[in-house]
Amino acid sequence: MHRHEFFIGGRWIPAPAESLFKVVSPATEEVVGEAPLAGAADIDAAVAAARTAFDDGEWPRTPPAERAAVLERAAEILRGRTGDIAGVTVDEMGCAISQAPRAQTGMVAPLFDYYAALARTFEFAREVVAGERRGLVTSEPVGVVAAIVPWNAPVTLSAWKVAPALAAGCTVVIKPPPEAPLSNFVLAEALAEAGIPPGVVNLVPGDRDAGEHLVRHPGTDKIAFTGSTAAGKRIMSLCGDQVKRVSLELGGKSAAIVLEDADLATAIPALVGGGMHLSGQVCGALTRILVPRSRYAEAVDAAATTASQVRVGDPHDPSTLVGPLVARRQRDRVEGYLAGAVADGARVAAGGGRPPGLPRGWYVEPTILSDVDNAMRVAREEIFGPVLCLIPYRDEDEAVRLANDSPYGLAGGVWAGDPARGVRVAKRMRTGSVAVNGSFPPFPMVPFGGFGQSGLGRELGPEGLRSFLEPRSIGLPAS
């Protein structure tokens, strides 16, 4: 929990004393660690190391099977360090330890295994013949990648970017956020131990200014970003000025359609539990629950009962489901949305305040809002807290219209007694991922990303590897 160095060029570089800052637990409001924040000079050094490793080093020219072997070693090392990653995230951002296997560690090693296997089979080059003409089409690494990751699942979302980038032959600069700067040090240690050459992976925690410097830097070839839509728009504009490659996984206001034949006894607890995952601080959370008017009162009662039974408290306690929000400003933001919802006519069916018995920490009760109209601000904007809006609908067509009536399109869900009907409705939703009866991406083999203001490009799956590759065509002389 106390780190005083950056990882640059394969070495741990002491950070200037003035760059060190205190990491505060959102559960206790006490200092639990210390980390360096990168300035412009530190970003420059990290990019220079990655640039040299790409332009002059061995990694981009290493055969894919040899790169795969390093990724496999990294996966094995990371499997042995899941407890370290989980423990750090509990303290630095308040993740409940019961949630860590799903959010913080469960996909990390499997992602490195997946991209190692894909690198061994992926067609990085193919020959094309058209009559007397022949060509060679190759997939080349895009270059130096800036991986800018958020605080809610910092190592998992780094792995989404770093594993395919390394499989492609790229070099990487990882910039974790100041709210959760520490857990990615474990990732850097594991990759160094696995044999990643110097400069191929660099780690420089930093704030928004550091991130902007990294995006603007002429030495970076691609930005891979996960975070808010507002920040994504800024990054996209900066990349547009440079015609720089960019992939963006942004916010969401995702809907779950509960059809009239759905089993509410199964659907509602699952939806409430999913919406409270990471205290609701999940971009793909299903926070708009669309319910038939004929079953609306029943669904509201079930959701309120379920939410009132969710255990809130110490994130170190294995029985806790909902820990604190990441920062005081985040709690203030959520409370502002709740006050606005009531002023707009919504009703608090459960929660709505700070939990009793927790005088310290940035907690908000699991909250169910009923009588919500899809035009309300609370139904239009991403709250990023443990708040679910229940919205009634007349028929299937209106349910689909309401689900699609959003600037976002990241995730979605359908609950149906008839799974085939659930799939048919899912296909009508304008969103990047849809869960039918709780069978929800992401997992390593399928792409994840959004429509509309939820982002640009895809992570995971073969699509995630292709996003770090540039196609090149070479005309071959006639044989």
UniProtKB/TrEMBL annotation:
<keyword id="KW-0560">Oxidoreductase</keyword>
<dbReference type="Pfam" id="PF00171">
    <property type="entry name" value="Aldedh"/>
</dbReference>
<dbReference type="InterPro" id="IPR029510">
    <property type="entry name" value="Ald_DH_CS_GLU"/>
</dbReference>
<dbReference type="InterPro" id="IPR016163">
    <property type="entry name" value="Ald_DH_C"/>
</dbReference>
<dbReference type="InterPro" id="IPR015590">
    <property type="entry name" value="Aldehyde_DH_dom"/>
</dbReference>
<feature type="active site">
    <location>
        <position position="249"/>
    </location>
</feature>
<dbReference type="InterPro" id="IPR016161">
    <property type="entry name" value="Ald_DH/histidinol_DH"/>
</dbReference>
<protein>
    <submittedName>
        <fullName>Aldehyde dehydrogenase</fullName>
    </submittedName>
</protein>
<dbReference type="InterPro" id="IPR016162">
    <property type="entry name" value="Ald_DH_N"/>
</dbReference>
<feature type="domain" description="Aldehyde dehydrogenase">
    <location>
        <begin position="12"/>
        <end position="473"/>
    </location>
</feature>
<comment type="similarity">
    <text>Belongs to the aldehyde dehydrogenase family.</text>
</comment>
